[in-house]
Design a protein that fits this description.
alpha+beta, Heat Shock Protein 90, four-stranded antiparallel beta sheet
Length: 103
């Protein structure tokens, strides 16, 4: 992480926090960041819709689609997108994957 010490150039440092927990046969992953919150009318369904974006000048709408596709491939099609519940980390992704013993 780079911290800007020049008071004239104060920029918000974007932080991403990744938490991993293993409980029984499950891996729980939570990824949260302190970036800009999603718009109030945004939800998980809009996030995962291919080519859906709140602002076409900022993104293509493929990121959410890819997150869902990857989570689904690894067995968590019902992952959670938690928005605007935490003022410090307004965006949280929560995943739960079954751990499998490889023989």
């Amino acid at each position: 992480m780079q911290i800007n010490t020049d008071s004239k150039l104060k920029k918000k440092v974007t932080m991403v926090v990744v938490s991993l927990d293993v409980i029984d046969d499950f891996l729980f992953i939570e990824i949260k960041n302190n970036g800009l919150p999603f718009p109030n009318n945004f939800d998980r369904d809009k996030f995962i819709t291919k080519f859906s974006t709140d602002d076409e000048n900022i993104g293509t709408g493929l990121g959410g689609y890819d997150v869902h596709r990857i989570a689904k491939e690894f067995g968590d099609a019902n992952w959670n997108l938690v928005l605007n519940e935490d003022p410090i980390y307004p965006v949280k992704f929560q995943f739960q994957f079954t751990l499998k013993l490889i023989k």
